[in-house]
Amino acid sequence: MLAFVTVGSTRFDSLVNCVFSQPVLSSLRDKGYTQLIIQCGNSELDLRYLLQERDVFASENYGIHIECWKYKPSLRGEYERADLVISHAGSGSILEVLRLGKPLIVVPNASLLDDHQQELATALEEMNHLKVSTISDLARNIAQFKPDSFSQFPAYDGSRSSSVMNFFEFHHHLRFYLRLMKSVIATSVSGDPQEYENNHVHVVYDQIAPHFSSTRYRPWPIIAKFLSDIPSGWVGFDSGTGNGKYLPLPLDSPGKIWTIGLDRSRNLLEIARSAGDGNTIREVICGDVLNNVWRDNVFDYAISIATIHHLATPTRRKEAVQRLLQAVSHIHGRVLIYVWATEQDDFSKRRIPNLDSSSGSDVFVPWVIPKVKPEENAQVFNRYYHMFAGGELLMLVTEAAQEIGLQVGPQEMASARNGIEILQRGWERSNHYVELRFWTSQS
């Protein structure tokens, strides 16, 4: 099989050098690829002096025949021959490859990327037409790539009129999809909060599980570092694990720690059981983050990522924090919590209405599954979120800890037997987070 890499008319040094690396070449070889063609443009790489001597450089490494060149008048032939295309995020390249029905991994070039390219790549990924990858995740995404899992892109019969009509029809559909995807709607919680969550959180995630999971595969850096820093041999849990993307971490030290996943969605848990390389069965539990699922102090650490903001009242959000605190060791336990923020960064896909954010805001956030056939309509599922205001998460954690007899502050200020220290708190990419460490007084 043949894999084709293209950077278009720009420089993309990091991508070109990445595909020459042992992890990427090994992943391609293990997936059955025997040929790799790289269109490198003006990218600088270790072999650039060879490219100056002749137009094409050929080599063989890790069992793969490699051919590398700068430009050709047209890449259509390479696209047609390829069994997999790895491309920059240029819209022309993306649309041509998808029109040909070729499996596609898009690697955005952060140094050149504009908002339109970001929107296009992200939207097409969430429409399940392609996979978006970072440089650091490319080898892993190739290893996990399943071409048959993607939705077919609208066909083109080759005529000029069809090309024009399909172009405008697709862009109209894409603009509609982006508008739906970005809209955040203010709401207010009414009635029984548990029933409200059942209707606007749990039922929704069970329905969107495969599509949702296909867009949630990149670990966030602070969470990855938290898990990487956990001592070897520790056992912890992920409260609201979703598709289990954090269960295999740290990726560079598999088996160093053991994280068990907890979630209400059985459909997401089915995906979480094989999170990572797909060859390891993960431990997952179907349960509610508000229930007393675990024995007290049984775990060494816990994470709660993008879960507590789905709970419909302050009391329920506080109880979820208390379940985390109760389940980990009060001697050395570590806890990391992430929630969605009212303050959104410039990269956010969401349009936030003008809300009174002094105590957070209750909103519906749509999840859109695009139509597969022209006669179908896009499916829109509204998910409930409580968007946290600045300082609200810290206040929630403080109240939750104090209510169960824990002092909040450094151990040097201890006036109680057990307590928690705030190791770090902050805001990252439209989320608030807080990291906690337990301590016990020796007196």
UniProtKB/TrEMBL annotation:
Q: Which InterPro entries match?
A: AlkB_tRNA_MeTrf/Diox (IPR051422), Glyco_trans_28_C (IPR007235), Methyltransf_11 (IPR013216), SAM-dependent_MTases_sf (IPR029063)
Q: What Gene3D superfamilies does its record include?
A: Glycogen Phosphorylase B (3.40.50.2000), Vaccinia Virus protein VP39 (3.40.50.150)
Single GO BP term: tRNA methylation
Name the Pfam families on file.
Glyco_tran_28_C, Methyltransf_11
Name the domain of life. Eukaryota
Q: Name one GO cellular component term.
A: nucleus
Q: Which reaction does it catalyse?
A: an N-acetyl-alpha-D-glucosaminyl-diphospho-di-trans,poly-cis-dolichol + UDP-N-acetyl-alpha-D-glucosamine = an N,N'-diacetylchitobiosyl-diphospho-di-trans,poly-cis-dolichol + UDP + H(+)
Domain Methyltransferase type per the UniProt entry, residue ranges: 238-326
Q: What is the role of this chain?
A: Involved in protein N-glycosylation. Essential for the second step of the dolichol-linked oligosaccharide pathway.
Assembly and oligomerization: Heterodimer with ALG14 to form a functional enzyme.
Similarity comment: Belongs to the glycosyltransferase 28 family.
Name the record gives this protein: UDP-N-acetylglucosamine transferase subunit ALG13
Organism of origin: Marasmius oreades
* Gene field: ALG13
